[in-house]
Specification:
With 188 residues, the protein is α/β, with parallel strands linked by helices. The chain has helices at 6-17, 33-42, 55-67, 114-127, 146-156; strands at residues 23-26, 47-52, 74-78, 93-100, 128-138, 164-168, 180-186. The chain has a 7-stranded mixed sheet, with helices on both faces. Helix 3 links the parallel strand 2 (47-52) and strand 3. Helix 4 (114-127) packs parallel to helix 5. The protein is globular.
Length: 188
């Protein structure tokens, strides 16, 4: 199956679960591709809340949404993902996406960190409604991310297995440090 990568796996998972009218959170807006996908799937009756700590990322996301006619569906916040619980109520969110690492084509010294990423995931798990999903793409390698990757993978093993299913996927034959796709489903 050509073109299988971390992002394509994440987007397939998201497409399977997000329906019109959904409430979604893009915890790391980046260049806006996940935000745009969530807006397309949730549609005009849905709502997407997106966060990023970099103005460049928020501006890039805004421009992409405007170019696709999706700007009215999303709320963009120049804030850290570990504040997401201030914007949604427990048990109301259909889907949450994360892309850990740094902004593509951005400053590599500005990147996600375990000390805010893990609390953000914890908040997200509470915000998910039964049957809700969370997608994590763990990018690491080069000049950043190994410590966060290790902390995230250790944390994921501690998530309550009676309430959540956590699937961590690994690319066994890809060179360097291939990103790690993670899917989480909150049981009904």
């Amino acid at each position: 199956m050509p073109g299988i990568n971390t992002l394509s796996l994440a987007h397939r998972f998201i497409r399977e679960h997000v329906k019109p009218g959904a409430l979604c959170i893009d915890a790391t807006a980046g260049r806006g591709y996940d935000t745009a996908l969530l807006c397309e799937l949730a549609g005009p009756s849905g709502r997407v809340i997106a966060f990023d700590i970099q103005k460049e990322a928020i501006d890039s996301t805004r421009a992409l949404l405007e170019s696709r006619g999706l700007a009215g569906i999303a709320e963009l916040h120049l804030a850290s993902h570990h504040h997401m619980a201030e914007y949604a109520s427990p048990g109301t969110v259909d889907c949450i996406t994360f892309n850990f690492g740094y902004l593509p084509r951005g400053d590599h010294s500005i990147c996600t960190r375990a000390e805010t990423s893990i609390p953000a995931i914890e908040q997200g798990l509470v915000l998910l409604k039964p049957g809700g999903v969370m997608s994590l793409c763990i990018y690491y390698g080069g000049d950043s991310g190994f410590e966060e990757k290790d902390a995230l993978l250790a944390y994921l093993k501690t998530i309550d297995s009676k309430t959540y299913t956590v699937l961590v996927t690994e690319f066994a034959n890809r060179p360097n440090n291939p990103p790690i796709p993670v899917r989480i489903l909150k049981e009904i």
